[in-house]
Protein 1
Amino acid sequence: MSAPAGAAPADTRVIVGLSGGVDSSVAALQLVEAGYQVEGLFMFNWGEDEAGRCQAADDFDDAAEVCQALDIPLHRADFSAEYKTRVFQYFLDSYAAGRTPNPDVLCNREIKFDAFMHHAERLGADLIATGHYARMDHTGDTPRLLRGRDPNKDQSYFLAAVPIAALAHTLFPVGEIEKTDVRAMAKAAGLPIHDKPDSTGVCFIGERDFEGFLRQYLSGRAGPVRVSGGPLDGRVIAEHAGLIYYTIGQRRGLGLGGVAGAAAAPWYVVDKDLASDTLWVSQDTHHAALEQTQLVAGPAHWLIEPPAQPFRCEAQVRYRQAAIDCQATPLADGRIEVVFDRPPRAITPGQYVVLYDGAHCLGSAEISHAGAAARAEPTTSESIA
């Protein structure tokens, strides 16, 4: 945990974003043990779940028990209105436009490091802290966002769209720790959530059926499923319920078993043609659409001085994919073109490309197009500018 220069713990009030989970709870524990003035703040970002029971209420109770065990105050704030207008609406608009958005990236940028941070400042916070597995280096002239020490839990990808000014006032106490050690610390401290399962999935969807959730807000338009390549090239083999329910590279949930004349092999989504409502699929795991080496993304969000010339770095196009060596070229309109040394799997519009120099996160941009810049249209989105 690297604090900004001159920030003496005993004189520094830190408000921790407490979710009721083990990571944020141990973040608060570490700050208390380091001598900071620590307070918790629980965020209500979403309403009731499909069962009519508010999961957030249970999480708040867990956060309250943690604060009682640590003897620190707990605040709470309702950001559900901001979440629905600044994150969820963009989520819906992106799916309607055929993209596959990453709401966790936007939630960090728009809620946790904007609405939450401003609320914490009104409560008198000098710094904020979260349970993200990432690190901040405050030792140089400019703060740097670094990958978390645990490579299996690193969450810098989700923080790459946050303004550096916000990150400069943030602590990530668990960023130096392995996940197994985090749970051990929680147990040793007697925190009641030490064995609570990690949350999975998008925060407002959770474990429920994704397509069923999306159908509550968007109506898919049926269309043909056509084969791309191979002996069945161009043939219609099924009908889909709507392109909004599919993403590039998707394998599960296609319902295409037993196609006459096709091998007993998995099918993959390789393209979505919105003009004709056609879903293109292939059984070729190395289909060209799944192994493209170029992308265009933007507008670029930099955590460093914006570069003017092409430069070498590494980049990843999904959270769980490894970073790949590449060349990034800033474009005159604020976008970037990235050319990879080897193809990442299934470049998908709406996801983010995040650039790294080793552990140092350089910046990010929403992917608008897989391919060369000459064939891509500039993005018109303002919510991630």
Protein 2
Amino acid sequence: MQPTFLGLEGLALTPDETALFRAADPAGYILFKRNIDTPDQVRALTASLTDLAGRALPILIDQEGGRVARLRPPHWPEYPAGDVFAQLYDKAPVTAMEAARLNALSLAALLRDLGITVDCLPLLDVRDPGGHDIIGDRAYGADPMQVAALGRMTLDGLAQGGVCGVVKHIPGHGRAAADSHLELPVVTASRAELERDFRPFRTLNWAPMAMTAHVTYTALDPDRCATLSPIVIDLIRTDIGFQNLLMSDDIGMKALGAPSAGGYPAGSNALADFGARALACLDAGCDIALHCSGDFAEMRSVCEAVPEIGAAARARLDAAMASIASGDATPAAQWADARDRLLALA
């Protein structure tokens, strides 16, 4: 097994993808809008990935609600963005927390029915007035403990529905004044100021999976962004205390392709060599390198470069998947129950 989560090109596996994935055995996969048409098609796709792997498989998706949702009408309902729960929390904290749990339970039931086992949610990024809108209304608010409370209930709801949650973007993306999809954000806040960003992640450091931020924090490591920084990864493991599965954000994002991101092997072309990007993530201390584009040449480069998954990373992966094995209620019943209780709260 290789320490990668990979995307794929379209609605079904191609022969080239099948051959590559059979040989490389990625740890898991991630789905995007280009991979989604109808419920039956998604079920067939996830079944083909699981059959190819021959094991319980992390199949990821970004299904947050609001503007970040790969599953949309007419086949699937719209879900609210994090800010909806933040606004409700201002009026009725306990109600907001229960609404977040029920929302996540409903999401989980929908995903599990499609064979999707991991949702890249919740965001624990603390909203900041100077931050770029790439976080914006996706956040659960500007107060760290509020963010942690709503994030906790989201993790609980997902787990109750048999889906693994992913806290992101550790150690915190809220202050970033740039979109890491397009460029490398640089945060110049002091170490003391960054404590505000760390708090939700420290509070929920038991989460089964986390995703790094492609952000440079000059107070922590001025030369390398968090994903590529052994210094920041060590802080995540020790100071924040997160000991479970740590994946990179998408290595195809332009932030990670910037030479100023640092952390690449000498002589590599960081802008083009996706194998070097994946290795740099792993060398910094990430358990898994995430590659999302589905571009076959890029995936082949990654698969040719990375080693077998290490024992510690494999144990963390197995533990994360075991944490959701108890989701045993039928998806239809879970979805209907969560929907009815959400409507009652509304």
Protein 3
Amino acid sequence: MRIIFKTDYMQDIRPWKDGYQLSLYLLLLLVMIAAPFVIDDFYLGELTNVFVWALAGLGLMVLTGHTGQASLGHAAFLALGCYINIILIEQGLPFMVAFPIAGVLTGVIGMVVAVPALRLHGIYLAIATLAMSILVDDIIVLTEPWTGGVGGKYAPSVNVFGVMIDRWGTPREFFYLVLGVTVIVTLGYINLLRSPLGRSFIAVRDSEVSAQAMGIDVARTKAISFAISCGITGLAGALMGLFSGAFNNETFSVVISIQLLMMIVIGGLGSIHGAFFGAIVVGFLPQFLSISKEWVGGVFGSNTVAIPGLEFGIFGMILIMFILFEPMGIYGRWLKIRTFFELFPFYRKDMFKRQKSYLKTERLR
């Protein structure tokens, strides 16, 4: 049993529990840095895709996981970040300037949209954001002179500190670009949760009435959360466009929004780890199904048959299983296993029993 003995208040708000946890994260980072030298370009591309999805999951986690506002429209902000980044590059701005501007502009637009949308609660907010995602699809088609319409656009090579980076031509450099952005955003996210603003997000999530009673401006907190969430999602969209190479209005469909929400639920709502665990499922599930079909075809001596909707069907089954048997997601299950070994033999079965998270006054909202 490992016990952390705290002797100072600052130990409660530091990013890492102790030096042991920090060393594990540093070791994981070193493994990721060494990955391009160990795996081939195909699996390196899949790993890059996982980090892009993780970045998008972090964006949605700010709003849904830590502020409690359901959103089914984050594909719209992925599209905004992607198109703004490419359009600015085409206008002559270097990538290192266009990329952060894309995130900031997406965040500002998200905050403007949030003013009327966040007056809604629960399923009504989800429907409003879903309508937003559908509307952006039509806007992309109507603004063809800037977006390319149905024909779409092609992502150019980008210059990062004098190094030309292309998804297909230089996969190793592109991986390090995505990894660097993900690490920076994750560190910023960790520090956000330690700040008064991050704590106000969690207070609004747990109970808006109680948060308001403590002096938190609920409307302002929701708007800032929406802006930060959309800004991070815009950065993910910019990288997603560079990763795909070519994109149009169908690239960022409503299905992406639903997939993002399911991803953070499976990974574990309300935790940074959950965004990464969910991204691993989303990133590697298609390849796992493809390899499995080839293996089954090889064993039974038959040709593999493409089954429409198989990927989303299995993804939906995984989601249902987690909702029924492990609502805390993959990270929640890992947390229980880790706690069991840390507290053994004093672990209690009902330690993680679900509690009511809303007041009676909020159940009808």
Protein 4
Amino acid sequence: MKKIILFGVILTLFISCQQQEKPAISFYYWKTIFRLSPKEKNCLITNQVKRLYIRYFDVDLIEQTQMPYPRTPIRFETSTANFEIIPVVYIKNKVMLDKKLNVLDLAQKTNSFIQQINSKKNIAIQEIQIDCDWTLASKDNYLHFIEAFKKVSKKKLSATIRLHQIKYFKKTKIPNVDRGVLMYYNMGKIATDSLNSIYDRNIATRYLSSLKNYPLPFDIALPIYSWGIQIRDGKIIGLRNKIDAHNLKNNSSFVLTKNNWFTITRSNFQDGIFYKENDQLKLETIAANDLFEMANDLKENTTQNPKEIIFYDLDEFNLKNYEEGLFKKVIDCF
């Protein structure tokens, strides 16, 4: 009897330790050339990163023929020997909306192109991730593609999942993959209002309670990127990446009029972009406090512990906005 009780205590402690295990830190890499800077390398070492999710290519439609084709494939200039690589293929939803789409052909060609990229650098993979914001109109093609791709690739398969696909999964359905990755960003519309389209807690709370009901195991992707929205005469004319607020504050042509909003006082070119006098530039950023808030909200509203938190995305420009130990502190919230 004592042995049974002792075994029960040990089993309870073992399960408790498993439950307290923190998720691993991983990163998305979303550039067309894989070339790590010293700061990026240091980030990976400091955070003991073992897995990198690298965007291999996009799948878009050729304008003239409306046929799918791979766009901007990755080129490797830095060795990936120290990491497990998970190729990510971003498929535009308009590809899946094509009612004449040959799903099997697309699956075969997508898999073949991944193999070509891997063979050039002798990269061995165990998993592939498909990134597509499918809708009710495209779900049939998308779900059939996932089935076909899984058979063709014979690899472990993961898929990105948006909040609306979790809340309405009975309508949008669940792809037949081994796991999902919840993209906890790009929540709102890119607009001229004061809201942050990357992360808005008010929008997030509409979906959080649905997370407990989602049948597919999922990990979580969190944002560490920012961008600027250029506005002219009340209309959006462009999305500007890698806008350095510090540089703008030191530029007399840009005047900070309110939090994260700049008014252009004199027409000028900045990093190859033309800004006209009286244009406005709205910066959307993710602060450290936002990441802690996201992590705590997700912890409270998920029954499953994510095995991995994937930060989007690994880029020296993004990393400089956060203290070195931040990512581990965010992980500690889970």
